[in-house]
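Lab meeting, item 3. Inverse folding demo.
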């Protein structure tokens, strides 16, 4: 066996994504709130970018003149539009690589300034960002923290208090203790293990928690116990003449306690006539008890969680114009800071008297600033074109509602606008639009569809809306089965299989007909 080495020359072409091409797509894909944060970060780290201040018309014209001269001298050329075209070519040639490149874009943090953030000199004015941070609400206390604060104020023995602190730490997000005393003891601190508590000790501490901690139901081990704790607490208030209102009368609470204590499984399966026969209750009495149960919580701990609510900021608004009988779309990116290139730094970048290292630093940051401004402008242009195309294609939705939604793949929109379908997908990603029918995800206008008897196509979202309407208008004493909904939809010209109806019903979170049935006395 012999090994040889040799040299060969091979000519070929290979397309690669530059960092700026990736960043251009990320700017397009960002929802408005995230883009606002991204722009704020760049304002902090890039000294050559500044927020436009209110000025007189003459000052505006001078600023525009100075800025255009500076940009021309630096040969700052907008590149994001070309980035979009190059990315389309790359996506066609390497679809899997492109998907992988952007799948983790949210988790990556890129620094555009390799030299790190620069501290700006103060002009003596208050820092608006610092003021906003000082006025921001503090992090809410967690469920465990709130319960621990309550527990510290209870009048219980030291042993019970210590074991209760361990039990509070073992509660899940619903406020339930789903682990056994043995498991809790195994994970307890050594000081607690040294106490060698028995199951009776743990039980005593748990009962004290259930009695003293709010909201009522905290410390339950399952849904049945959670409901019983809440019912018993309300019965105690009724006995003390603490009026709970007609919905939580003593009679209703007693029926509710029997339903939960004796017939929990049958109640969960909506077997009300069977319960009536066994318990000797009328259906009206059972419904009175069910009315009480509907006012109770199966997740008492959820209301105490310090979870952050994600606000939805619509990226576009669609309004009806009566004069032209058209729906007009416009973007809401007026929330973004109005930024520009700092003309003083632009002049310094061209001044040969400034040290070369400083000029290079300024030129790099000026280029980054101009690129970001241009990328945001390209995002605005692309997103508005996509929204307008969707409004034109889905005019019936805005006129008649979700049932009129048509099947709309992304490819026809891409062909109409002359862009790649991947660009359309990123433009609609995580974007919301405000319409006369509420705030809806932009992506919801794109879906596959089904064919009707007349040969027309109907959106899957429209079918879901039709199913929801059928269930809302059904006779609650005789709710529609999936098979009955198939027939009702067929009368509307929509022919789908029963399993498809069941799938859409599950997606809507609607229970089966047996569980929806309401019994009257």
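The presenter then showed the designed sequence:
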């Amino acid at each position: 066996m012999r090994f040889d080495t040799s040299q060969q020359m091979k000519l070929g072409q290979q397309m690669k994504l530059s960092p700026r091409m990736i960043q251009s797509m990320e700017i397009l894909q960002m929802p408005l709130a995230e883009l606002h944060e991204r722009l704020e970060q760049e304002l902090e780290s890039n000294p050559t970018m500044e927020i436009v201040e209110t000025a007189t018309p003459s000052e505006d014209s001078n600023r525009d003149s100075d800025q255009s001269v500076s940009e021309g001298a630096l040969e700052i050329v907008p590149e994001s539009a070309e980035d979009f075209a190059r990315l389309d070519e790359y996506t066609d040639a390497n679809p899997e690589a492109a998907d992988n490149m952007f799948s983790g874009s949210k988790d990556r943090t890129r620094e555009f300034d390799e030299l790190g953030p620069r501290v700006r000199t103060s002009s003596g004015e208050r820092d608006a960002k610092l003021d906003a941070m000082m006025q921001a609400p503090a992090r809410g206390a967690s469920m465990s923290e709130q319960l621990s604060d309550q527990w510290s104020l209870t009048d219980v023995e030291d042993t019970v208090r210590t074991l209760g602190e361990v039990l509070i730490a073992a509660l899940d997000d619903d406020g339930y203790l789903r682990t056994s005393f043995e498991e809790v003891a195994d994970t307890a601190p050594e000081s607690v293990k040294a106490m060698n508590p028995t199951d009776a000790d743990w039980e005593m501490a748990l009962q004290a928690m259930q009695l003293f901690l709010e909201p009522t139901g905290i410390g339950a081990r399952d849904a049945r116990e959670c409901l019983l704790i809440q019912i018993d607490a309300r019965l105690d208030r009724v006995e003390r003449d603490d009026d709970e209102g007609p919905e939580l009368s003593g009679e209703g609470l007693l029926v509710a306690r029997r339903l939960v204590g004796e017939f929990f499984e049958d109640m969960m399966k909506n077997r009300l006539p069977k319960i009536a026969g066994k318990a000797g209750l009328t259906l009206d009495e059972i419904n009175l008890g069910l009315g009480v149960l509907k006012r109770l919580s199966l997740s008492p701990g959820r209301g105490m969680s310090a979870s952050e609510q994600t606000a939805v900021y619509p990226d576009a608004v669609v309004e009806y114009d009566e004069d032209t009988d058209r729906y007009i779309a416009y973007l809401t990116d007026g929330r973004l800071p109005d930024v520009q290139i700092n003309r003083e730094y632009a002049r310094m970048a061209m001044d040969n008297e400034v040290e070369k290292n400083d000029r290079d630093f300024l030129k790099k940051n000026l280029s980054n600033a101009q690129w970001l401004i241009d990328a945001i402008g390209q995002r605005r242009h692309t997103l508005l074109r996509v929204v307008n195309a969707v409004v034109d294609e889905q005019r019936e939705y805005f006129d008649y509602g979700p049932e009129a939604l048509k099947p709309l793949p992304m490819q026809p929109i891409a062909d109409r606008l002359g862009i790649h379908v991947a660009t359309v997908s990123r433009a609609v990603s995580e974007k919301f639009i405000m319409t006369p029918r509420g705030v809806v995800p932009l992506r919801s206008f794109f879906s596959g569809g089904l064919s009707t008897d007349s040969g027309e196509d109907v959106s899957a979202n429209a079918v879901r809306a039709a199913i929801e309407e059928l269930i809302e208008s059904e006779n609650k004493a005789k709710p529609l089965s999936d098979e009955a909904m198939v027939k009702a939809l067929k009368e509307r010209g929509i022919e789908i299989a029963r399993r498809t109806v069941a799938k859409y019903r599950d997606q809507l979170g609607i229970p089966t007909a047996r569980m929806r049935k309401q019994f009257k006395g």
